[in-house]
Amino acid sequence: MKKIMIIGSLNIDFVVEVEEMPEAGETILVQSYTKIPGGKGANQAFAAGKLGADITMLGAVGGDENGTVLLNSLKSANVCTDYIKIDETENTGIAWITVSHAGENSITVVQGANRKVDKAYIDKHIEEIKKTDIVILQLEIPLDTVIYAANLAKTYGKTVILDPAPAQRKLPNELLSCVDIIKPNETELQILMDLENAEEDLENSTDLLKKQGIKNVIVTLGGKGAYLNSADGTKNFFPSEKVQVVDTTAAGDTFTAAIAVKLADDEALSQAIEFANRAAAITVTRKGAQSSIPSLAEVKQAADNQA
């Protein structure tokens, strides 16, 4: 199996459940909150580990209890955490997540130690980047670092996967030209392309992304499934499995990790998407971020049940 590296964020998630998402200016009372290991980078690393990958993570936590919780969670999923920075001058990143009974969520992130994932830190671990095969990046660490790491990875011939969240308009071509696979959801696609109805014309909007140098575009569409506009021009829709949605918090992260896991096994991108759809479908039936992510055995069992 090829090696995977995640370069990204680590946060502790404080999750509150509400009947309906609050309107602007509205105050809602809740009974309690749940504290769960999260962060897009850490979620993806955890998912890759649970799905059987040879996975290493680069990122930063504070020298506090939350940082210890995050590191222990990753280790429990067999993620190599040897190179994660522990910054005694910063607090570990925190995310406040509001989840409705319909499974919708909104997330507010305090970056904390994630801001310390800088170019100097990446330079310190270039040898580890050279040893890996697939590098996954998101946008919860400084954008300059994401661009720098993507360029380094591409220089060394690595497959670069970008999960463009939280989405930003007009990402620089310097970054996009290094990306082999980009995986926005439908909302992120609209923000990336600055289009009002990107989902209504997936072919055109993903073609526009590819013109910026990206080889493959995968758009996740929630309960509808996923759309692929591939490097060879093939365009396919992959329907998702129908499940009872409880919480969508880590579904996208599970999907991204699952894609990388199957590519690390030298499977075709279409097969990887089918596997990722199945893994994400399990994730949304459970509460929380890392606590909702399935193991490889669970995904295989789900496939057997459908056969």
Tell me, rounded to a whole number, the average pLDDT.
92
CATH architecture: 3-Layer(aba) Sandwich
Give the full name of the CATH homologous superfamily: Ribokinase
How many DSSP helices? 11
Structural class: alpha/beta
Distance between the termini: 26 Å
Structural domain count:
1
Query: Regions with pLDDT < 50 over 5+ consecutive residues?
Result: none
Would you tell me which CATH topology applies?
UDP-N-acetylmuramoyl-L-alanine:D-glutamate ligase
Under CATH at level 1, the class stands as Alpha Beta
Largest sheet: 8 strands, mixed
Order of helices and strands: EEEHEEHEEEHHEHEHEHHEEEHHH
- Please tell me what the overall shape is: globular
Lateral strand order in the biggest sheet: 4-1-9-10-11-12-13-14
Task: Write up what this structure looks like.
With 307 residues, this protein is α/β, with parallel strands linked by helices. The chain has a single domain, classed as UDP-N-acetylmuramoyl-L-alanine:D-glutamate ligase, CATH 3.40.1190.20. Helices cover 36% and strands 22% of the residues. The chain has eleven helices and 14 strands. 49% of the residues are buried.
Write the layout of secondary structure elements.
Layout: E1 3-7, E2 11-18, E3 34-38, H1 40-50, E4 54-58, E5 60-62, H2 65-76, E6 85-87, E7 93-100, E8 105-110, H3 119-124, H4 126-131, E9 134-137, H5 143-155, E10 159-162, H6 173-176, E11 181-182, H7 186-193, H8 202-210, E12 216-220, E13 225-229, E14 235-239, H9 251-264, H10 269-283, H11 296-306
Parallel strand pairs: 1-4, 1-9, 2-7, 5-6, 9-10, 10-11, 11-12
Antiparallel strand pairs: 2-3, 7-8, 12-13, 13-14
